[in-house]
Structures are given as structure tokens and as C-alpha cells.
Amino acid sequence: MKKFLANTRLYIGNIAPEVSELEIKNLFSTYGEVDEVFVNREKNFAFLKLDFRTNAERARAELDQTQMKNRMIKVRFAPATVRVKVKNLNPMVSNELLELAFGIFGDIERALVFVDDKGKSVGEGIVDFTRKNNAALAHKFCTEKCFFITSDLRPVITEIGEMCEMDEGLLEMNLPRREYRRGRELDYHKAREIGPRFAEEGSFEEEYGDKCKAIMKEFKGKEIAMKEELEKELEQLQTKMEIARYDYETEMLRQQLRQRELDQERHKMEYETHMQRVPRNFGGVGGFSNGSVGRQQQQPMETQKLQLVGMDHSEGGGGEGTNAPNLGGGFIYKQELESRNTNNSMPLAPPPMPPQGLMAHLQGGDQGGSSTPQGPTWVSSSNFKDFNSSWLW
């Protein structure tokens, strides 16, 4: 629960000039915590705050019209100009939303939206700030600028208002009747010469009273007519603003659509330019050519390809010296060397040795009385006519 709110501020009047601030604080400290004590010795009054409203009410009730330094002091709640009256509120504005909206200007004690006997908003309310400068700041900004609380285009209208005492009202003892104020004293006695009564028919009092009531009634009728006219004009303005807002939002959407089309066209041109710069046949290490791996990176060193050529079981064949003889089930063991080592790498390994049976057949047995094989002897295709290829397969 908040302490030292604006509604706990007390006014102490008719204090003696010799009364100190400490004495006033000690007098009211028996009712609760005291804060913000201010003493004006020239005009003999003081202000202070108690912690809670109940303590302030008890202090006012018990200390009002009591003696302090041979002078009767007057204690009452002090009006504070920390209240902002708010008008032109949307029917959907609640107390919580009003407090949230005006909370940007400073700490708020209370925010209240007025309602009628059916509980519906009348479009007005109050906001009580803890400090006067916060209330002045809120009124300044709402006057110089347009402050909207809801999506409805209703700018709030503010006024600085004093916090009036409504709990106690004006007591008879607080009426100005002191001797040193002769003018007020005469006014008091003149007003109290005749008491409450009804005017007699046809009297001067009745005639004057009827004219006064007619003026007030005319003013009330003009006020109601002005309010109705104001509501109609506000309705028309709201309709126009809704149409203008719709047109504005439509135009903004069109601009966004045009911007997106321009961005899409720009991205398309950038993509086409990029694709024109990229070559179709990629080179270098790991490059591709027509979707296949570059042949230069498959075998960087010299390779030996062994191909079985002429596996044709048809009869007949080429004679000696032919490059691709038809051996009728024979084969050619062909060695093809391809040199691709362009980086001066190590020499290629020798070709693999054929099976020993094939090796002995190619050598034709012992040569020169030696049974040790002398290595393969590559002969022409005519030497394979009598060789049964089924042995190898």
C-alpha cells in the first residue's frame, strides 16, 4: 500500500509565529509517520503529509480547533493541484487503461473513469498524480499534441483541476466569521437574516426566481444542443477519418507491392548476370565437364590398361600383322601406356607379371638348356593360333 499520497496532505492554519517545524512534526507524529513538513511564518500556516488517509482523517478530527501556543489552529485537508481532468474518452477506456496511458508522465495515485447509473462510461475521468510537475507535464503534452488512448481517433482533452474535499464538505465552524475580517462577517449575518422558505405566489421573490430558473433552463437547453451538435460533428469527422485511413493504408499497400516487384525484378537481373559470368565447363582440381569427373584428376600418374580385345567366338580371323585379329576364342593381352605425369613425379611401376603357365608357354620351354624362365616374350598374334583359350578362362 502506498504511503504519503496527495490525499493525506493536511493544512494547518493560524499557527503562532514562534512554533517551529519540529514542534508541528511532534504534534502530528502521534497519528502516524509525518513527511514533507512546510512552514510559512509570514502567513502563519503549514503543510504536512501523514502516511495513510485514515491517520490523516483522525488527526484532522482530533486536532482541528485546538489550542497550540495560545492560538486555536485550524486543520483541514489541503487541496492539491495534482489532478488532471480527462475528457473525450472512448467508451472502451477503463480505469486500468487510463492509468496505463498517463503513467508515462509520472507516478499516479488514482485513475478513475466516470460512469452513469447503468455503469456505462460518460467519456470523462480524473487522474491524480503524486507530484504537481507531473500533472502539469501531462496537461502540457495533451494540449500541445494529440494523445490517443485507443485505436479510435479521439484525442483526450485535459484540464488541471484542484482536489476538492468531498468527504467533509464545509462545516459551520469553518465559515469566515472572525472579527478581523469585517466584510466577510457582514456577509455572513446578511445571508443568515432569513432562513429556508418557499416563495409565495405572485410575490417579488417568485417572479425573480422564475426568471432565474428560465435563464438556467435556457442555458441547459443550449448546452444540450451544443453537446448533440458536437457529437454529430465528431461522428462525421470519425467517418471521414476512417475513409481517409482506409485510403492511406491502401496506398501504403500499393507502394509495398510496387517495391516488392522492383526487388523481385532486381534479384532476377542479378541472378541472370551471375549465371552469364559462371562458365559452363569447370576446370581445375575437382572440376566437372558436362557432368562427369575431370579425366585429368582420375589418374594423375602413368597407368597401364589391360584390355581383352577380340573376344569373338566366330570362326576365321586375321592373319599376322593385323591390329585386331579374330582368334576364334583367342585373346590379346595388350599393354597400353599412357603418360599423364606432368609434375615430374616418381617413375611408373612395371607392368604385372603374367601367370607362370602362360609365361612358360610363351617361352616355348627351355631355351639354351636353362629351365629358369627368362621373362615374358611378347610375340605376334599368329603364335596364339594353337593356344587353347579355355585354359585361361
List keywords for this structure.
5-stranded antiparallel β-sheet; alpha+beta; 13 strands; 4-stranded antiparallel β-sheet; 7 helices
Textual characterization of the structure:
The chain contains seven helices and 13 strands. Residues 282-345 and 365-393 have low confidence and may be disordered. Helices cover 34% and strands 18% of the residues. The protein has helices at 21-28, 53-63, 95-102, 132-144, 182-191, 204-277, 356-363, and strands spanning 9-13, 34-40, 45-50, 66-67, 72-77, 83-87, 108-115, 121-129, 157-161, 288-289, 292-293, 303-309, 332-338. The strands form four sheets. A five-stranded antiparallel β-sheet has the order 2-3-1-5-4. Strands 7-8-6-9 form a four-stranded antiparallel β-sheet, with helices on one face. The chain is an alpha+beta fold and 393 residues long.
Overall outline:
flat
Biggest sheet: strand arrangement: 2-3-1-5-4
Radius of gyration: 56 Å
Instruction: Kindly name the structural category.
Output: alpha+beta
Strand content: 15-25%
